[in-house]
Amino acid sequence: MATTEKKPAPLPFHFQFLAGAIAGVSEIVTMYPLDVVKTRFQLQVGTGGVEGYTSIGDCFRKIIKNEGFSRLYRGILPPILVEAPKRATKFAANEQYSQLYLSFFQMEKMNQPLSILTGVSAGMTEALLVASFELVKIRLQDKNSAGKYNGTMDCIKKIYQQEGPMAFFNGLEATMWRHALWNGGYFGCIHYVRTLLPKAETKQGELMVNFTAGAIGGTCGTLLNTPMDVVKTRVQNQSAGVVKKYNWAVPSLNTIYKEEGFAALYKGFTPKVLRLGPGGGILLVVFDQVSTLIRKHLM
């Protein structure tokens, strides 16, 4: 006789926020150096000359040799500060949009198109929160800013004084594109991969399914959004006093393509996917585990 598995009730928003926050901080602390490497590649025009980076290993080696090991964690404070609300918003907004769209379309359960729609919606919501923090992080990660900013607060102060408060919203449009594409691919792939994998019979099996689905989802999201990530990085690294070469996302994509070729739109892809593939798995596993503990002990 067939049995119907009861899906766990959605967590209240404050518990979704907590689970997403813990998952996000776990991922960023583990994978942050790859984000620094990704940014360096995205800011490098052409081959970068003698000081340019030729591979992930070369980038790591040159950063450590020329700037010190701690440089791999420079700029981590802004993403740490926003990571809790950012990841919490990702999962909480995805859950809330899921309930909203299920009701709106009068459907009983999620399917892949609906998973993509909720992911895109959650991503655009998330982008509104993180754009300013991303800008500060990019400025600190750029090797040319080594002597320009003395830390996160100094960076914020100088951007405000030299460029005005609206400068913190530079790149918002590209950030919304980036997050919409990543979240749509991430949550859409997770739903699809879970339908393909055999049903887990043990807790360890469930962890493996979640990690596999999350890692594939993270890889898919990275494939989709890397060009917009390159654009976002270029836009946000333009400071005051220079003619801005990159403005709106789509024209900037065209500029990079014409001047540097299609491959330039995927600069930093390898360190990005090495971070966000496994990182996507870490996110999903930690979120699900914390959610389980909350349901067991706090509800």
From TrEMBL:
Give Gene Ontology CC terms: mitochondrial inner membrane
User: Where does the record place its Solcar repeats?
Assistant: 11-100, 110-196, 205-293
Keywords for the protein's UniProt record, in alphabetical order = Membrane, Mitochondrion, Mitochondrion inner membrane, Repeat, Transmembrane, Transmembrane helix, Transport
Q: How does it sit in the membrane?
A: Multi-pass membrane protein
Q: Does the keyword Protease apply?
A: no
Q: Which Pfam families match?
A: Mito_carr (PF00153)
Gene Ontology biological process terms, A to Z: transmembrane transport
Question: Subcellular location, in the record's words?
Answer: Mitochondrion inner membrane
InterPro entries of this UniProt entry? MCP, MCP_dom_sf, MCP_transmembrane, Mito_2-oxodicarb_carrier
Instruction: List, alphabetically, the PROSITE patterns matched.
Output: SOLCAR (PS50920)
Q: What is its main location?
A: mitochondrion
Family membership: Belongs to the mitochondrial carrier (TC 2.A.29) family.
* Protein name, entry field: Mitochondrial 2-oxodicarboxylate carrier
